[in-house]
Write a structure and sequence with these properties.
The protein has a domain of 101 residues. The protein contains 4 helices and 5 strands. It has a 3-stranded antiparallel beta sheet. Strands 4-5 form a two-stranded antiparallel ribbon. It is elongated.
Length: 148
């Protein structure tokens, strides 16, 4: 059985800038995490941590708790600016992974809402294109109300 997954490329700046790939396995809810990198500096602890987080998921720990745990992890060497042009900072590699996971979950939620709003538009008699516009406008209004 194939389980859907999504892999994110992340760059970690430093003396030896590293590229790593963070894979989130699962459809609506993650069931496992993997990190792959050519750099072997952090391989042992990252593999152990991803295994522990994956085990937590299988034991029913909510993804939000894992995200909070990741985002509350600090590197004693200090934080860095994520080199993706966003200007966001990460307190550690694990914090960076938590930000990626949080964005992944937000994107999933937004896709579900878009589909729900699209179906709502279709049930109101709108054609496919108008229903898509209707869904995008509703999602935009939700985001706007959250920002206020």
């Amino acid at each position: 059985m194939l389980v859907p997954s999504r892999t994110y490329k992340m760059r970690v700046p430093g003396e030896n800038e590293q590229t790593a790939y963070f894979t989130i396995v699962g459809d609506d809810t993650p069931v496992a995490f993997f990190v792959n990198s050519k750099s072997m500096d952090n391989f042992q602890w990252i593999t152990a941590l991803m295994t522990a987080y994956s085990r937590q998921l299988s034991n029913g720990v909510p993804v939000v708790e894992i995200i909070d745990d990741m985002k509350n992890t600090f590197d004693p060497k200090g934080k860095y600016i994520i080199p993706d042009g966003s200007g966001r900072e990460a307190n550690s590699i694990v914090h960076h992974l938590g930000l990626i996971l949080e964005t992944h979950m937000d994107d999933l939620k937004n896709r579900k809402l878009l589909l729900e709003f699209h179906e709502e538009g279709m049930s109101k008699g709108l054609n496919h294109l108008d229903s898509t516009t209707y869904a995008e406008e509703k999602l935009k209004n939700i985001r706007k109300s959250k920002d206020e």
